[in-house]
From TrEMBL:
Protein name, as recorded: DUF1330 domain-containing protein
Entry-linked PANTHER family: BLR0684 PROTEIN, PTHR41521
InterPro entries: Dimeric_a/b-barrel, DUF1330
Annotated ranges, domain DUF1330: 2-97
Highest rank taxon of the organism: Bacteria
Gene3D superfamilies tied to this protein: 3.30.70.100
Pfam family, one: DUF1330
Length: 117
């Protein structure tokens, strides 16, 4: 099942040289784990609800295990401080949904569990 690394980052007014170095080198840390960028600070973002002043980064992996192994790899951990020293934000690893997932089926199961309780 596909998994995702998602970051909500608050970029500094001016990108630090170490952040640029991080951006130039991150793909080499993703390649062994089959990670690929799906979103990388998209130039067009429309906030539909709430307040959101951050950049979004989403990287897809074939599995949660590969995403986890990438984040904790020596290569990425060595590179990571180049970003975290100059940008605030949050980062998550999240499992995707299985093929054929339907929100209505999940709601029905939750409703049944709530009724049974």
């Amino acid at each position: 099942m596909t998994a995702y690394a998602i970051a909500h980052l608050r970029p500094a007014p001016e990108l630090h040289a170490e952040v640029l170095d991080y951006m130039e080198r991150i793909q080499s840390t993703l390649d062994p784990f089959e990670g690929r960028f799906l979103i990388h600070g998209a130039p067009r973002t429309e906030v539909l609800e709430g307040d959101f002043d951050r950049a979004v980064v989403m990287i897809g992996f074939p599995s949660y295990d590969q995403a986890h192994a990438w984040y904790h790899s020596a290569a990425y951990q060595e590179l990571l401080p180049r970003r975290t020293a100059h940008m605030d934000g949050d980062a998550l690893l999240i499992d995707g949904v299985p093929p054929g997932y339907e929100a209505a089926a999940t709601a029905a199961a939750l409703r049944a569990a709530r009724t049974a309780a």
